[in-house]
Amino acid sequence: MTDTPTRADFDRYMVPNYAPQQRIPVRGEGSRLWDQDGREYVDFAGGIAVNSLGHCHPVLVDALKAQADKLWHLSNVYTNEPALKLARALTERTFADKVYLCSSGGEANEAALKLARRWAHDTHGENKHKIVSFRQSFHGRTFFTVSVGGQPKYSQGFGPVPGGIVHGEFNNLDSVRELIDADTCAVIVEPLQGEGGIVPATQAFLEGLRALCDEHQALLIFDEVQSGMGRPGTLFAYMRYGVTPDILTSAKSLGGGFPVGAMLTTDRIAPVFKLGTHGSTYGGNALGSAVALAALEYIDTPEVLEGVQRRHERFREHLDTLNSKHGVFQGVRGMGLLIGAQMAPEYEGRAKEILPLAIEEGVMALIAGPNVLRMAPSLVIPEADIDEGMARLDRAIARFVESA
């Protein structure tokens, strides 16, 4: 390999389960990135809703450097101060009494689903094992979580899926009534579907799920891996709805770029995870916990959370203006700084064609399925960067329309 890796090296050395863009970023600061050739980009992708404070935010860099000189990893044979501080901070700021730390959102959801089944087994018996999920949902890439997720393309071809999993229609409470029964141990839902197209749950839907779970003695799990940690304009989306789950999962923005995940639950449920029932080699890692604590304390402030909604409105204004010129979207939806623009019927399924054009114009965006252009930028992205990035996106979409 040459001293400077190229995009061709990905195809040469990496398993082909990704198809990254041709440009390779090498440096980031705030909401700007620079590639190997020194080209600059405005980052609306945010590492897929991970870089909650942008790139190399000094609060996170300082936390990482300070902890790097003290302690990196111990394993769960021991505990460590950063992990304990992070767990305490999460419980003090949420409904939860107990926290399980891990390395990713998939791990957090795996833990949540196992906890729910173990709780139901120990509390009600082995028949209470059924899990209700929703079509178009996404909960991770472990075999259990892709099976629970409502997108069969992610589980097909890997053999028989785990049993006891059924899928209703998101935002359709009647579909849940047809599925939930005495054998249901849990309902898992994203308050804001991410990979399914940036679709917020309705107030009545989440309130109805809470009532159905209470009626059938099932647990309500909120997957807030993508929607949480300040992204909705509150620390977690459940706070915005006023509907409290029994279990909540977090990752992505929790670490601000460092791989961290967490499952939060209550004293009523947590005790069934007895010694040895579950674990994670890197869960509660001192480095990750120190960074996540710094991110949590910085994000959970009025200045940041109130700023999210202002930035949301600025994005919406730009998208409306852009769409009035080009007519590429049939609607814009989302919550806080997780925003989706659905393609108009004449451009159905072509959202991904905008991404390389956007890169060429100097702005990074995402898709959420084939039909939604997604933006998940830093929670503290400067308004000037929003304006500049949208101007670049405007040029990219103009080129897309011209070539369509």
TrEMBL record:
Modified residues (N6-(pyridoxal phosphate)lysine): K252
Pathway of action: Amino-acid biosynthesis; L-arginine biosynthesis; N(2)-acetyl-L-ornithine from L-glutamate: step 4/4
Reactions performed catalytically: N(2)-acetyl-L-ornithine + 2-oxoglutarate = N-acetyl-L-glutamate 5-semialdehyde + L-glutamate
Main subcellular localisation: cytoplasm
Residues annotated as binding pyridoxal 5'-phosphate: F138, D223, E224, V225, Q226, T281
Co-factor requirement: pyridoxal 5'-phosphate
InterPro entries: Ac/SucOrn_transaminase_bac, AcOrn/SuccOrn_fam, Aminotrans_3, Aminotrans_3_PPA_site, Class-III_PLP-dep_AT, PyrdxlP-dep_Trfase, PyrdxlP-dep_Trfase_major, PyrdxlP-dep_Trfase_small
GO molecular function: transaminase activity
Localization annotation: Cytoplasm
Listed EC numbers: 2.6.1.11
Cofactor details (free text): Binds 1 pyridoxal phosphate per subunit.
Chain positions recorded as N(2)-acetyl-L-ornithine binding sites: R141, S280
Pfam families, sorted: Aminotran_3
Alphabetized UniProt keyword annotations: Amino-acid biosynthesis, Aminotransferase, Arginine biosynthesis, Cytoplasm, Pyridoxal phosphate, Transferase
Additional facts recorded: May also have succinyldiaminopimelate aminotransferase activity, thus carrying out the corresponding step in lysine biosynthesis.
Family label: Belongs to the class-III pyridoxal-phosphate-dependent aminotransferase family. ArgD subfamily.
Quaternary structure (record): Homodimer.
Protein name as catalogued: Acetylornithine aminotransferase
